[in-house]
Specification:
- By secondary structure, the protein is of the alpha+beta class.
- It is built from three helices and three strands, in the order βααββα.
- It has a three-stranded antiparallel beta sheet.
- It is globular, with a radius of gyration of 17 Å.
- The N and C termini lie far apart (about 55 Å).
Amino acid sequence: MTSASGDLGPLHPSSPLSIEPISMRVPDACRFTGISRSTLYLLIARGEVRVVKMGASTLVLTQSLRDFINRRTAEQHRPPR
């Protein structure tokens, strides 16, 4: 269904146009996670977040960011010993 302006409005999550990118540039990864650029590069250096170099661009793998956040969440929700 289209609006009066002709746009399609919000996309349904299963829409092919709403597919999450497989990778993103560093500034986008910082916005996606809410961490600073320097922290992201530290995580990359430690091997906690994976990247792919494409020429001069550093592409951060989206799944790697999700995995990192999930690991941190799990660590913080472990009951104390």
